[in-house]
Amino acid sequence: MPTGWISEHGFLADGHSAALVDRAGSVNWWCPPRFDAPSVFGRLLDDDAGHWSIRPASEFTSTRSYLDDALVLRTVFRTATGTAAVTDALALEPGARGHEIGLRSPRVLARVVEGLAGEVPMRVDYAPRFEYGRVRAYLTDADGVIGATAGACRLELRANVPMTCRAGGASGRFTARAGSTHHFTLGYAPAYRDGAPALPDADQAVADTVASWRSWAGLHHYDGEYRDLVRRSAMVVQGMTYGPSGAVVAAATTSLPEEVCGARNYDYRFVWLRDFSLTLQALWLAACPDEADRQFTWVARAMGRIDDEPVPIMYGVEGERDLTEHRLDHLAGYAGSRPVLVGNDAWQQRQMDVLGEVLDAAWLMRHYLDPMSADVRYLLHALADQAAQEWRRPDAGMWEARDAERHYLSSKVQCWTALDRAVRFGARIGEPADVAHWATARDEVRAAVLGRGWSDRVGAYTGAFDSDELDASVLIMPLVGFLPADHPRMRATIDVVERRLSRDGLLRRWNDDPAGFVICSFWLAACLAEAGELGRARRLFAQVAAHVNDLGLYAEQIDEATGEQLGNFPQAFSHIGLINAAGRITAAAERLRGRTDRSAVPAGAVTAERARPSSRPATTPST
């Protein structure tokens, strides 16, 4: 597979899983049962790990776009003899509308080919490979339906064009003439269950899926800056939401590398508490408060009772804790990048930042937590207690270092966030003695960060206590309200981080990070907006936003030299960063126009207030 291929893909979602389709009409990733299930199409990771392509039989060029306000992809192929279009959708449940979309899924991939002009000879290549490419299915052809069964999986493909079964797959040829329509429906069902996979009419499945997505989009009315980018990013985050639980996965894929031929190839199809607070703020700013409410409910259920053990930092989409990592050595990896991994051993790490992320999210949602249930009160109290007791301990940090624990500054800052929000909650979650204890610990954390986190030699806050190594994670300090962005030392830190870690607007996490990290770049734009440098913030935002692919999608990182997208795709963290930076820039612009009093309204509040339905209680993201 070629390098630079990650961003060539479009993203489809049905509230349970995702499919990735490249601009040549090939579905190269699909794990039908749920995001972290074994793939049936896995060509992203190995040429022989399965795919399903529909494309012209001769040379072609292609352009593509999403249908307005829907994760339904339309690719137009142009050849010397004519033009044809392929429309792809992961079908949503028939009739699902608004916040009901994604709660159930028919597990159907529908594809419709239309002849637009002239004649276009087309070819279909269908090669399912189960268990991440380990298993070639046994294929049957009965009454125009091609069945593929192996192990726990069963697929059925119905097409209104002739298809021929062969070893390991099926193929077909047809001609798309002006005005013609050709239909393909692929359904999944567990092999051990009675009943065949659903095979709805492809036209109807596509039309109903478009209507479902548009009904969801119609409930959200963000009108701040960068409206189109924010709306697309909010839809991507919704597409990465596991409907039955409300959990948002970090990415749709596993093992797409941070550096081609490097070893940092992790499985991101899980739910990180690290992302939680930022996800909620993004959904809030994008006028999706109901999704934010579902997110907090899911986390409260997944975490359960927290006693003396470290807080789990990540979960499966239904709240699973054991996500033990193992290698898939039979796969070549994306562009030769090994190892290919399933599961993620970061689930065993201690990451102190999660305490602040959950309590910050609760503070954002505080009006929805009134009255507060006993379980939620217990959870928030326990998290605050753990921050007070454990903040002096080293941890793996938000970048999940696998070598040694350190006293990471961002983790200390988030312990401060946890204690600060607990003090704000006050009697709602603790007795007066508890609140006093949290306030004392909060002040101790702050003093330690201000003292041991600053490096005179570097002239900035650095990545860990008593260190001279820069780390872009310190940019969260003004974003959680630890220090204002225009504080002299914070302002100096922003300048040093930008000067030493960025190139053409792309910000690396540390000096030898292989590529620019998208959310860090948006953090920098947000910090500049908070510091009152709106022009620089907008220019930086535009530089980073220019690296989206043609469908408005981001991976995790971007190579500063080539512009190639790297890492798992699409990456929720990147889209969350875009939304939150857009909100900060919008709020800063309105402050400059004199519409708000900065001392009275936290950053991002204007955007959130204006976007929120009037029947909802007024609240704002924390700063």
How are the SSEs placed, and which strands pair?
Blueprint (H helix, E strand, L loop, with lengths): L8 E5 L4 E5 L3 E5 L20 E6 L4 E6 L6 E6 L3 E9 L17 E20 L2 H4 L1 E2 L1 E5 L2 E6 L2 E7 L4 E3 L2 E9 L3 E10 L11 H16 L9 H13 L1 E2 L4 E2 L22 E2 L3 H10 L3 H15 L10 E2 L10 E2 L13 E2 L10 H12 L9 H17 L18 H17 L6 H21 L1 E2 L4 E2 L14 H4 L8 H14 E2 L2 E2 L8 E2 H13 L3 H12 L11 E2 L6 E2 L5 H21 L12 H7 L12
Antiparallel strand pairs: 1-2, 2-3, 3-4, 4-8, 5-6, 6-7, 7-8, 8-14, 8-15, 10-11, 11-12, 12-15, 13-14, 16-17, 18-19, 20-21, 22-23, 24-25, 26-27, 27-28
Largest sheet: 14 strands, antiparallel
- Overall pLDDT metric: 91
- In whole angstroms, how far apart are the ends? 44 Å
Radius of gyration equals: 25 Å
Low-confidence stretches: 596-623
Estimated structural class = alpha+beta
Q: How much of the sequence is in beta strands?
A: 15-25%
CATH architectural label of the largest domain: Alpha/alpha barrel
Summarize the structure.
The chain is an alpha+beta fold and 623 residues long. The protein is built from 15 helices and 28 strands.
How would you portray this structure in words?
The chain is an alpha+beta fold. It folds into 2 domains: 6-217, Beta-galactosidase, Chain A, domain 5 (Distorted Sandwich); 227-611, Glycosyltransferase (Alpha/alpha barrel), CATH 1.50.10.10. It is built from 15 helices and 28 strands. A hairpin with a 6-residue loop joins strand 5 (61-66) and strand 6 (73-78). Helix 12 runs antiparallel to helix 13 (534-545). The longest helix is centred in the last third of the chain and has 21 residues, at 432-452. The chain starts with 8 loop residues before the first strand and ends in a 12-residue tail after the last helix. Residues 596-623 have low confidence and may be disordered.
